[in-house]
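Input chain follows. Return structure tokens only.
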Amino acid sequence: MGQRGPTRALGAALVTGAAGGIGAAVCRRLAEAGAPVALLDRDPDAVEAVAADVRARGGAAVAVPADVTDAAAVEGAVVAAEDALGPLETLANVAGVLHVGRVTEIDDADWRHCLDVNTTGVMHACRAVGARLAGRGRGSVVTVASNAAGVPRMGMAAYAASKAAAVALTRCLGLELAGQGVRANVVCPGSTDTPMLSDMGATGGLPADHATLVAGSAETFKTGIPLGRVAAPEDVAEVVAFLASDAARHVTLQTVYVDGGASLGP
């Protein structure tokens, strides 16, 4: 059996949606693994605050504010990230929005916003960073989608459709760039203790309290969470960091569910 040396520290990483929730946790975890991190989010003050926190913990971090729906802004942020940190080796697509509503009732603007951020935003980042990774012959792309991409959820059609499209996009990227040594994988969280989850209850009318999520809802055909807890952002970040690392050097085109068993292992 072949021998392998110790896993090396991660190279520079770009994380979208870095201003809070899972994105901020991913930034901290990648920095702990040795990666200099470029934090991309549309809120300059919030993303700088997370970057400052990463630096205070001993990591290297730079904020590169941009809106993922703006292709030129994403390209500019990638240039700024590499100017500050050197060549990128990892892209973590975490930026996302959630609008709720049934298919027969959903607002057109909410539908477009989900697709613009959750799908087109991923494409913009994958295109800008993926081309650079392919030219260098190495790298990893990890897209944070949702278990709603693979399991139907009532009242979440726009979100689910946009995340399913992001899954397909990322896997196609992985197939196209495998010959250039670039890996691309997907992480699908379930209910996670983030502001998005809180907002789902406050403004969307869907259950957001932990006890209800763990128990599930027969009326909406939603299973509970077999492990009995809602995820912390760090639970998702740990899997992202693994997939970005050399420890996953032979893993690509995969979708990993991090949902406590809520989707019953699709």
